[in-house]
Amino acid sequence: MSEKTVAAISTPSGEGGIGVIRISGKEAIKIADTVFKAANGISLCAMPGYSAAFGYVYDKEEQIDEAVATVFLEPKSYTGENVCEISCHGGQYVTSAVLRAVLAAGAQMAAPGEFTKRAFLNGKLDLIKAESVMGLISAKSREELRVQLAAKRGKTSEEIEKIEAALLELSADFAAYSDYPDEDLPELSADNFFRLINFAEAELGSLLTSFDSGKILREGVAAAIVGKPNVGKSTLMNMLSREKRSIVTDIAGTTRDVIENSVSFAGLNLILADTAGIRQTKDAVEEVGVELAKERISSAQLILAVFDSSDELDSNDKEILSLLSPDNTIIVLNKTDKQPKIDKAVFGGFKTVLISAKNGEGEKELENAVREITAADKINPAAALLLSERQRDLVQEAHSAVTEAKNMLKSGFTIDAVEVCVEEALSTLYTLSGKRVTNEVADEVFRRFCVGK
Ligand code: GDP
User: Fold this and answer.
1) Are residues 138 and 232 in the same domain?
2) What is the pLDDT of residues 395-405, one digit of tens each?
3) What pLDDT shows up at residue 181?
4) Is residue 29 part of a domain?
5) Residue 78, CA distances (Å) to 63, 82, 84, 116, 133 in order
6) pLDDT in the model for residue 250
7) Which one of 228, 230, 261 would you pick to mutate in the ligand 1 pocket, going by the greatest count of ligand atoms within 8 A of its CB?
8) Helical (H) or strand (E) element with 296
9) What is the C-alpha to C-alpha distance for residues 31 and 40, in angstroms, rounded to an integer?
């Protein structure tokens, strides 16, 4: 356990109802007690764990805010150490003032991710769970939140432990077998070796697949709404980003210089490229609109192609249609509140959804179609998933070592040689979970955290 007591503001900077200053370490309660005076006169040091008190925060003699202090005693806290959280008013100045008082009372400034790192070092969570803490914070859709929470609760760690157990059993069998080096591999042992190694190989393989299928949860779905002017693209965009269930943020495009909107829809994070360009060029729509549509179509994973169902298809519609593929396109037939003039059948093999964007009708059907075409329903949010590149790379390494061990076994190598590969796979998995990890690896994981977490 670290000797240093550290503190940081754990809530985002800005104005909010509450701001939390977290203090963790041996002296946490004592330090909090010097800046916080409970209204009932009881010292924080006399309070049991999991208790809270209302009171006042002082900077020396001067009262700087009213606050609630919550006391957690080691080991029953997030970090496993003594922790005091001071919940004061959520203003930038006030939270900084409280933090300054806490630092002046003897705490040191916490590094990014230091609270979670301490939780890891104190055995509260492994490295996979620690990474999912970060994932939970940055989750942008219901499904991502679900998988990150499952990982935080140990789903992936349990899976890794099962594989480790199989490899350990294999190692133990090898050790027993090595006691009789002159004898041939008895059939029974060989069966068991292959059973264990096949199990490890298959489980690692399916974890690797989970990384690919989980990509749309981690990175969102690059989506585009295309269609000629006036078919209802903007109205559909408004329907998708309805305030009650979406987070709409402007994020600068990472690969292209465009503004993108991130919209939570159908449990997924849809990253929609801004369609402002199409609207600005209303006089030359036919050409520019189609050009822009082409660009979007070639780069998007999901295309919502909007057509006005109350109007016959014209040459623009037909040109757009000719650019689309049923693999990643949903035909959205809008304005179903009006007399229909298009027969759904013209869209042949495409998944087609009827909506009235204006009235918000057909939303559920559109959600289902989006989940189907992105294969979101095939991802089991309760299953073990690899959620970071670090996890993927290490599982890949362990998988290769296990495959090599299996091939060696098949080709009759000595048990010692096979054992080296199995040990390598085990040691890689220990790095993954953090059971055996260097400071550099741990630092690399926690470096990405924000201060206060
Ligand atoms: P965009 O140019 O494709 O972005 O189209 P807009 O979203 O600006 O819509 C063009 C016009 O169609 C507007 O007057 C909308 O109010 C109207 N509109 C959009 N969706 C519907 C719908 O579902 N039903 C009806 N009746 N009108 C709609």
Assistant:
1) no
2) 999 999 999 99
3) 57
4) yes
5) 29, 9, 11, 8, 12
6) 38
7) 230
8) helix 285-299
9) 19
